[in-house]
Each structure stands twice: as C-alpha cells, then as structure tokens.
Specification:
A: 12 strands, B: mainly beta, four-stranded antiparallel β-sheet, 11 strands, 55% strand, globular
Chain lengths: 116, 116
C-alpha cells in the first residue's frame, strides 16, 4: 500500500531565507504522481507543484521547487525567499496513476512559520 | 483555473439530525469527486471516491450508511451526514478531477461541521 511520510510537524524559517520541507513515500507502482499543497488557516487547499515519476527534471513553479530523488523515494519541497504569507500547513501527497480512480493520499503535514 | 465550490461553508446542527453538504464544479465536468475529512492539526483523510452515475467507493472504516454520497451529475456531488453526533464534527473537503487535467485535483473551500 502506498504511504506518504512527513517527519517535520513544525518548521521555522526567517523571512527571505530558503526552507526545505521533507517528504518520503512508498509505493510499489512504477507510475505515480507527487504533489505539494499549501493549506492556510482558512482551510482551502492550494496546489503548489507536481512531479511525475517519469519526469527527469525536478519540477519548479516560481519560488517552489521539488527535489525529486527517485531512488531514495523522496520528494522534498524547497521554498526560496520565504515570505510571511508562506506561513501555513504544507501537505505532500501521492497518486498512483492506475490505481483506484486517482485518489490522493496525504502525508501528516508540516506547519511552517515564517518569522519576520 | 477550475473552481470547485462547497455549500454551506459552515454548519451547526443538533445531535441526531442529518446534514447535507454540496460540492459543485463550476466551470468543468467532474467525472470523479473525492470527499475528505480533516480534524484540527491533522491530515486529510479520504472518505470516499464518487463517480458520476455510480455508487461511491468508501475507504476502509468509513460507514457508508452514515455518510451518504450521491454524484448525480457531472457537476454536483453531495455528502449527507446522517444522524450526526458530536464526534462527526470536523472539516469536510471535496475535490474534483477534470479529465483534461490529469495532474490536478481541484479542491473546494471546505465545510466546517459542528454537531452540538
């Protein structure tokens, strides 16, 4: 069964610095997708970035990049130049492409606090 | 991007009553919708996968007779919490997949249910 693990319940970062949020996964499938979502206190889930298992290059979206290490089964999110508005919960998620309609399985989440 | 709405955004009900939550895809057709619940400071737990015109697939441990899901059209799925109890108080989030955008699920803003 697929599993997503985020081992950092909480993280602090100074404004304008970079931060890495860890995510490891486990799956027996060869084809899968990895996602990162941001959830501010309002509760909405904001899609940040996607990495496919066959993508050779790490995904990037503005200040977000995904450090994909397939052999280690890790998909860490890097946020560059942190802003106060980045303070939120961050969830890593995985979808096995051919399994059960594409449902997402989420990690436990990391609460990021950006300090001024 | 695609928009998913939920209604109501919050609801308070008395123990023993039923509550219906609607999830609508506003500008796309969603053949598959997902329902999640989230307790404070915890991750999203998938409750069920709903496909238009067919019965929902429930995750292990979710009572299908208590959480009734109907996906009657390509733009609407409903979750009815029957005979609600205080332990059903939670944040319920729906998401929808658009077949032309296989990498993303679009999340609704969530519904906060409080059972007194």
């Amino acid at each position: 069964a697929q599993k997503i693990t985020q081992t950092q319940p909480g993280m602090f970062v100074q404004e304008k610095e970079a931060v890495t949020l860890d995510c490891t996964y486990d799956t027996s499938d060869q084809s899968y997708g990895l996602f990162w979502y941001k959830q501010p206190s309002s509760g909405e889930m904001i899609f940040l970035i996607y990495q496919g298992s066959y993508d050779e290059q790490n995904a990037t979206e503005g200040r977000y990049s995904l450090n994909f290490q397939k052999a280690r089964k890790s998909a860490n999110l890097v946020i560059s130049a942190s802003q106060l508005g980045d303070s939120a919960m961050y969830f890593c998620a995985m979808r096995e492409v051919y399994n059960q309609g594409g449902k997402l399985i989420f990690g436990q989440g990391t609460e990021l606090s950006v300090k001024p | 991007g695609a928009v998913v709405s939920q209604h109501p955004s919050w609801v308070i009900c008395k123990s023993g009553t039923s509550v219906k939550i609607e999830c609508r895809s506003l500008d796309f057709q969603a053949t598959t919708m997902f329902w999640y619940r989230q307790f404070p400071k915890q991750s999203l737990m998938l409750m069920a996968t709903s496909n238009e015109g067919s019965k929902a697939t429930y995750e292990q441990g979710v009572e299908k007779d208590k959480f009734l899901i109907n996906h009657a059209s390509l733009t609407l799925s409903t979750l009815t919490v029957t005979s609600a109890h205080p332990e059903d108080s939670s944040f319920y989030i729906c998401s929808a997949r658009e077949h032309t955008s296989p990498h993303e699920q679009y999340f609704g803003p969530g519904t906060r249910l409080t059972v007194t």
